[in-house]
Every structure is written in structure tokens, then in C-alpha cells.
Amino acid sequence: MSYSHRSLFSKSLQREPKDIQHVEPRRGASTSTKDSQALSVSQCVRQVARLLHQEIPRLQIRGEISNLRRAQSGHIYFTLKDRDAELACVLFRDVANRLRAKLEGEVIIDARLTLYKRSGRFQAQVLGLAHKGEGELRVELRERYERLRNEGLFNDTRKKELPRLTRDLALVTSRQGDALRDIQKVILSSQLPIRLHVFHASVQGQKSVDELLHALSTIEEQIHRFDAVIISRGGGAFEDLLSFSDERLIRYIAQMNLCTVAGVGHERDRMLIDEVTDIRAATPTHAAEIVCQHLKGTLEEWALLQERLHDQLRYRLDHAAHRLGLTASSIVSPKLVLERALHRISTLESTLERSIVDISKNAKELRTEFEMILERFSPRTLLGQKKALLNAHEYALKESLPDIDRLRVGLKSSLKQLQMAQTSSLKSKFSDLSRATEVLDSLSPLKTLGRGYCLARNERRNATLRSMRDFKVGDEYSLLVHDGRIQSKVLHIDLNKENKQES
Length: 503
Known about the structure:
Blueprint: H1 41-55, E1 59-70, E2 76-81, E3 86-91, H2 93-98, E4 106-116, E5 121-131, H3 134-150, E6 168-173, H4 178-190, E7 195-200, H5 208-221, E8 228-233, H6 247-254, E9 259-264, H7 272-276, E10 279-280, H8 284-330, H9 334-376, H10 379-443, H11 445-450, E11 455-458, E12 463-464, E13 476-481, E14 484-489, H12 497-502
Helix pairs in contact: 4-8, 5-6
């Protein structure tokens, strides 16, 4: 025998129970014992129960169910038997409520051996139950899951999201099942514009996989008609849900272009279709609720956007109407504009007539005046005037030539005297500048620094340090020498005797 904790997609952990050592009494040993060495019934039962718990904690046992009895407490009692032996079994209420397998026929139980202390009855506490052969199916499903997962069929990266507007919904399920009624009820109660297209297929049995594949292929051929597809059925026993872990079905769903939603069984049911579809719902009702909530959220978002757009349009129309009103108030009546234009034209005609008369009169006067100007400025008259003026200038120039020569000689003499005076003045100024520079240089502090002296300054106080009293220990000061500046710090002050006496 062996025991294991079994789950659909987890490997079984098995180990053999430790061998129980049987100690035979020695021959000739006395069977009489003192009262102090005898065990009470309670002590004996507790030790046996502890031995069972430590040595054989959990087993898998195969047998046929008989004498099934359901207690008012919710516990279930039955006998597991084979050809040669029987074993009393108890299935407590919390485990029985989670169990989906039928309690009949030949089964394999996952149990812990216990001893009922009150009656001293040996029994098996059932922790799980499956029909014969179900364990092999779970191992096969586990291997199939691992193989398909390694191929990447269950990767989240390849899964699609529901379209924002999921209004044409394909449903693959049995027309006789509760799943169809549950989904129709959810869609009708949502009052959303969702059109449900039902494709019938058997959801269990030998033909179920072929019918499911046929329904899905029909939907794929009409993919432009649908936004998403729900594959659904109600709950059932483990063997009833095996069609939804078929490898052909899983591979076909993986390559579908439509968004797929699985709503198979109940929350505790987990088949391979839940891993490959884009969205997994706990129940058929939950699958319909997912689609409805998604569409409802999209419609609410669009309604909000529509309301914002309406507000924007209303604002812009009000603004345009306001501007149009302002423009209309500034527009003058066309009749009034025409009357003003006609009056303006009449005024211009009168002005034009008066201008023509004045121009005719002025033209005669201008002609007489122009003839006089032409006579005055004719080339012959102008040439005679220019010739007379030129003769007068020529005579004046001849008269002025002796004076020009005298002025030229005087100008040369004055220029020579000016140059000599300027040279003498510059020499005198340069001599004065040289003497002033020598005096300034002799008085310059830099000259003193060049003879080896230095100047101490406290830059922070912007003061020259002339006495020992200006220095304090720790102060920083600068020593100026003739070719730079030295940063120093007072470490010690040594006063001479006279300064010490004064202090």
C-alpha cells in the first residue's frame, strides 16, 4: 500500500509505510502480571491510535462501497470491501461537501487509519475519493498539461483581451444544459445590447470533442460576425469534464483569432481549457458577467466622453452665437450705406465741375507765366549771363594773385615758428614728468617693499596691521611683498620689554 496527496496538476508523492515489528512472547514466560503493569483500555486504545498515526499516516485503498449511510450530522459512513476483507470508513461533512465523485461502485480512497476510542473500532477516515482509473487519468492530464505548457500554449503573452465593444457574442454549449439558461439570464438582466448566438455541442461523452471542434470551426469561418466566444457547461463529476481537457480541443483554441472565454464547471473545477483560453471564468454565470461588465464599462466611458463632447459643442456654439450677435450689431443697413454713397457721389460731381473751371482758368495764367519763365531761362539768355559772370571772376582772380603769394610766404613762416614752439614745450613737459616720476617712485610703498620690507594686512577687516596689538593668536593675515602676497596665521606673539612694561 501507499499514500499520496493528490491534485489535478501536481505529481503524486508516494512512500511505503514503515514495517511494523511484531514481538513474539518468549516460551515459558509467565503470563501473569502485576496490576500496576497492566494497561487500561483507554491507554491501550490511545497507544494503538498513536502507533497507527505515526507508522501509517495516509494510504490509498481500493475496494467496493457497501452499506452506505448518511447521518443527520452530514457525515457519511460506509464499508469498503473486497473478496476477503471489509474496512469501516467515515467521510466527515466538510470533506463530503467538497467531494464530487459518486459514492458507489469500486473506488480508490485517500484515507488515514484511525481507531475510534469510544468503541475501539478500527476505521479509515476518508480524505479523498476517486473511482477506479481516475488516478491514471489525472496523471495523464498532468503530463499533457506539462507538455502543452512547455510548448507555450498557456503563456499569458499570447492571450488576447476582450474587444471594447463585445456586442455579438458566440456561445458554444448544450441547448439542454443549465449553462445556457444561466448565461441568457445574466445578459437579459444586464439590459445591454448584446446579441447571443448559440452553437449547440455536446459537453460530455464520446462525440462531445468533435461537436465542440465543429462549433468552434464554424465560428472561426464567420469571425467577422462575432466579437468573442464563450465555451461553457455546468458542473459535474471529474469524468464528465474530461472533454474540456482534450488535446485536440486545446490546440484548436490556442490558434483561434477570436477572444475566448471559458466558463466550465464550478470554481473548484479546473480543466486544461481554463489554461488555454484568453479569459477563465469560475462558472458560466461568471463568464457572462465578465463580458457584460466589460461592455458596461466601455459604454459608461463612451457616455462620459459623449457628455464631455456635448458640453464642448454647446460652449463653442454659445461662443459663436455671442460673436455673431456682436458682429450683427456692428453691421450698417445696406440702404443707408447706398444713400451715403449716392450723396458722396453727388458732392464729388459738384466738386469736379468747379475744379474743371478753376483748372481752365489757371491753365491760361500758367501758360503766360511759363512763357515768361522760358524767355528768362532760355539757353541763350543763361549762356550770356554765365559768360559775363565768368569774365568778372577772371578779372578778380588776376587782381588777387599778388595777395595770395604774400599769404603763402607768411603761412610757411608761421608754421615753422609753431613747430619750433611745440618741440620746446614738449621737451619741457617731458622733463617735468621725469622729475615727478622719480619723486613718486621714491615715495611708493612698492619701492619700500623692493628693499626687503613687507606689509601686513587683515583682509577680513580690510585693515593694515601696524602694531603688535593689531595681531591676535589664531588670526589669518596677508603679507604683501614686492612680487606677491603670502597668506599667514599668528601662532605666537612675543612682545619686547618696552611693550611688556606698557601692557
